[in-house]
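User: Hey, quick favor. My workstation is busy. Could you predict this chain's structure for me?
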Amino acid sequence: MKQTTGKTPDVQPPKVSGRDTRKAVLERGTRPNVPLRSVFVQAPLGSASRHGRLKEFVRRSDLRALRAFLIVVACCSKENADGWTTTHDSAVWARLLDTGVAATDQAARTAAWRTFKRLQDDHRLVRCTRKPGSKMISVTLLREDGSGEPYTRPDGKTPADRFINIPSTFWTSGYDEQVDVPSLALLLTVAKEKPWCELPADKAPAWYGWSEDTHLRGLQKLLELKLVERRAHFRVAPLSPTGSTMVYQYKLAPRMRPRRKATAAKPAISTSPSGA
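Assistant: No problem, here it is.
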C-alpha cells in the first residue's frame, strides 16, 4: 500500500500571560493571603505625619511601580533560603509586571528593571541586583515603611507591625489588572480599616496624603468593580436642621476578604460498637 507523508504541522509554543505567571508564583507560595504592613497605607497614631509610602505612588500616579511592589510582597511572603529575596529571569519579571504588553522582549526586560530601580531608589522598599551580563534579577523586600530596614514577617503585636491580608484572588482573578492608582490605593485603605468604616473625603489629605478628588474617584471605581460594599448610615447631629446627618460606610466585598487556609478533613469516627 502506498504511504503518504503529510506535512509536519507547525508547532507553536503556548502563550503565557502575566496573570498565568502571577498565579504560578502564588501557587508556589501556597498562601491564601499576602500580608502587608498597614504602615504602608498610613502611619500609626502619634506619628509626625499619618502619611504612608502609598502616598508617593498616588502622587506620581505610578500604577506599574505600585503593582510591582505588591507582587514582590506576594513573591516574598514566604521566607526563602537567602532571605526575603526572589530571583527570576528578567523575562519572567517582565511578565509578572505586564511590561511586555506591546513591547519588544528587550524593552520589556528593561522596563521591569527600571521599575525595580524606582522602588529601590525613590521608595526604599526593595533592593534589586543584577550581575553584569546576566538576565537574572534578584529583588529583596525591605520594610514597608520606606525606612530601608530589613524586612521581617509582620506579627501584629505592635501598631507599627499591624498588617492587612490581601487575598491571592486579587491576582489570580485579575482584579489587579482592572484597578487604577486611586482605586488600588483606596482598596488598600478599606482593607486596613475595620468593616463598615467611614472614609470622609475631606480627611484624605491629612490622613493619607492624597486629594479629596482622588479619594472619591477611587471609592467610585471600587464600587463599579464590586470590590467594596457601601451602606448609608445616619449619625446624630443635634445642631443640624434635621437632627441627623447621613454618611457612607464601606467594607471589603466578599471576593476581597482574606481567605482561611484550607485544613485537611478529619477522618470519620466510627460509632459502631467495639468488635462489631
